[in-house]
Amino acid sequence: MTGDRRSKIRILVAISAILAALACATDLLVEHRTEERIAARAATRLRPDGPVHADLTTPLAGLRTLAGDVGDIEVSAKGVHRQHTVMDVSVRLKDVTTGGDSAGGTGTATVGYDQVTRRLGALGHDGLTAGGRDGALLLSGSVGRLGLPVIVRAEVSTTADALTITPKTVSVLGRSVAVEDLVARPGASGLRDELAPRTLAVTGLPRGVALTSAHATDHGLVLAFSIAAGPAPTAVGAAA
To answer: At the top level of its lineage, which domain of life is listed (predicted)?
Structure first.
């Protein structure tokens, strides 16, 4: 191989490396700007108390936006106010376009137990306080005419637009009793009302969004949602 040919090869390799570096830098720059615009658009729509973060999770997402394809997006926001409830929201959308469409995705809303307690209203003698431990929803307070302190373990079930909290067991004075056995005893009509299931409507959901499940954590009640393919709920794609 001649010296000129080796020099040309070295030059071509160097040019290829430079182009690759430029493409990578361009991708990162476009991706960063796209994430900023999506976060700003989401913040405008959601008006949360806390920060909004947007992440493009598809490889070379920045360069893909130049062709109108954003790819997969994760958006999170803290302190979103909806239907008199404050929650932390996270949304994951697949194959988002700059026109605002997506192939669907999932989302979660974490509601603090102070909010859950307020929505439960008069559950219990003086109102039970909601909390979570080891994945279980616990309601603590007092029930019955004697106002004895109890811990109620509850089950959470959902429909597409509502969740139901059903007390299952009551722990009092070191003993655990099934709610259905407790309320079946003579003179327990008051307890039956106090420990009746409570259904909470989940209203104001965007079109194509449905509640799929709910579970308790140590920090709040987490509601999970499915998002149908079509226009993104917060038009995050249009922000790109």
So the answer is: Bacteria
